[in-house]
Design goal:
Elements: H1 2-33, E1 41-50, E2 55-64, E3 67-72, E4 83-85, E5 90-93, E6 95-100, E7 104-107, H2 120-123, E8 129-139, H3 143-149, E9 157-163, H4 183-192, E10 197-202, H5 211-223, E11 227-230, H6 238-244, E12 250-252, H7 273-281, E13 284-285, H8 296-304, H9 328-338, H10 342-349, H11 351-356, E14 373-386, E15 392-406, E16 409-413
Parallel strand pairs: 1-4, 1-5, 6-8, 8-9, 9-10, 10-11, 11-12, 12-13
Antiparallel strand pairs: 1-2, 2-3, 5-14, 14-15, 15-16
Length: about 425
């Protein structure tokens, strides 16, 4: 009996083994025919605007390994680990803010390593921004500290214009002392950090000596990078500044109306012809809204007479973000209500900025490019927009960031587009 029982048990074990092998074969067959999930993320049904590639259509966007993997209609959703339905929304390249101050630190009363600057990650992604450009907060003496203290620890991509003054905006006031200007040291730092520094910068100087301007221009020329001119230069005439600037150089606070600088539109509402001539010659005009840099009394007639901004820098800092500026989306919305199309405002906030910075790997959704993506909601209703002079413009359109993706990772999701529904 014992032998028979052992024999029966052996037969049963053999049958179990055979059944397991059969099951394994079936599972392997199913796996062989099942579609592989080759994408990490798939955005479906969104209206894609990619100015570089002249795309303005409803398409799906697939992301894999932090890169744009594919743009097409009807991409198989089974191929992706996560699906985001962007129906009724705009899918655009991650926005680029050309003018910020993000060298944040603990020093009071200053921008460089100080409390006047703000932390990039606190304000970028909620506005669809994936790249911020610091507008000369640091100079050749303190850029390494800026990199170590801020840039290396930020999820937002941070690029920078290098201030021609060695310590950058360390005082928070107009600069008089030109002793820290050193062209060789400026060029050396620009070369050392070429992947991060996108040009030189001049501004916040109240002397009449053209040395700072000329030295910044020379440094930019040696590096084949743009000069960024922040127009707080009361002793320099605007005409002379623009005359010195090369095609590709950038002037910011373009629509400012303050006593220290000639405005682009005269008292009769006419755009100065030499200003439009400069833009037609290739000088780029950035908004640089800030707390005092954007006035409807300048921007509206300038726009109507042909001087539209090339880029939408915000001049983000501790004070401007709570005033009329708000965010880059607020600036884009202002121009929507002045008559720009959605495609035009997206172009200025993405591809135009990438070209101006000579970083054409950014600001687009080309296959193989880094997956920096903003999903925007164009709202319709009754809205108000405020300028630096406290004037209000009424409008019926406003952009809002629904979701932001930085290098393939979701970093902002306003209404949980990427989240799983909660089951009650």
């Amino acid at each position: 009996m014992k032998n028979r029982s052992a024999y029966t048990s052996k037969i049963r074990n053999r049958h179990r083994t055979i059944e397991r092998i059969k099951l394994l074969i079936v599972l392997m067959s199913v796996a062989a025919y099942a579609p592989a999930q080759q994408y990490d993320l798939l955005i479906i049904n969104g209206h894609v605007i990619d100015p570089k590639n002249k795309i303005d259509a409803v398409l799906d966007v697939a992301v894999a390994d932090g890169k744009i993997a594919k743009l097409a209609t009807g991409i198989d959703s089974l191929q992706s680990k996560k699906i985001i339905d962007a129906k009724g929304l705009y899918v655009v390249p991650g926005l680029i803010d050309m003018h910020t101050h993000v060298f944040v630190g603990s020093k009071p009363g200053t921008f460089a390593d100080g409390m006047y600057s703000v932390s990039a990650d606190d304000f970028s992604f909620r506005s669809g921004v994936t790249t911020m450009v610091d507008a000369g907060t640091s100079g050749w003496q303190n850029f390494p500290l800026f990199k170590e203290q801020v840039i290396d620890h930020s999820q937002t991509r941070i690029l920078a214009f290098l201030n021609i003054f060695g310590t950058g905006l360390s005082s928070g006031q107009a600069i008089k002392d030109i002793s820290t200007i050193n062209e060789d040291s400026t060029v050396a730092i620009m070369q050392r950090y070429r992947d991060l520094i996108v040009g030189s910068r001049i501004g916040h100087f109240d002397g009449s000596d053209w040395t700072p301007f000329n030295t910044a221009l020379d440094a930019a020329t040696k590096m084949n990078e743009p000069l960024f001119v922040e127009c707080h230069l009361p002793q320099y005439s605007l005409r002379d500044q623009l005359k010195k600037m090369r095609p590709g150089d950038i002037i910011t606070h373009s629509y400012e109306e303050i006593t220290e600088r000639l405005p682009v539109v005269d008292s009769s509402g006419k755009l100065h012809s030499f200003v439009l001539d400069a833009q037609q010659r290739g000088v780029l005009f950035d908004v640089g809204h800030g707390g005092a840099g954007f006035w409807f009394s300048q921007a509206v007639p300038a726009f109507q007479q042909g001087l539209a901004p090339n880029t939408f820098g915000t001049d983000l800092h501790r004070f401007s973000m709570n005033a009329g500026m708000k965010s880059i989306l607020n600036i884009m919305s202002k121009y929507l209500n002045l008559g720009m199309s959605v495609n035009d405002v997206v172009t200025r906030a993405s591809w135009n900025a990438a070209k101006a910075l000579k970083h054409e790997e950014l600001g687009n959704l080309s296959e193989g490019s880094v997956a920096d993506i903003a999903i925007l909601n164009l709202q319709h209703g009754s809205f108000g927009f405020v300028d630096a002079g406290g004037k209000r413009l009424s409008g019926d359109k406003k952009l809002e960031a629904e979701l932001t993706i930085r290098a393939g990772k979701i970093v902002w999701d306003l209404n949980g587009l990427s989240a799983q529904p909660y089951q009650r």
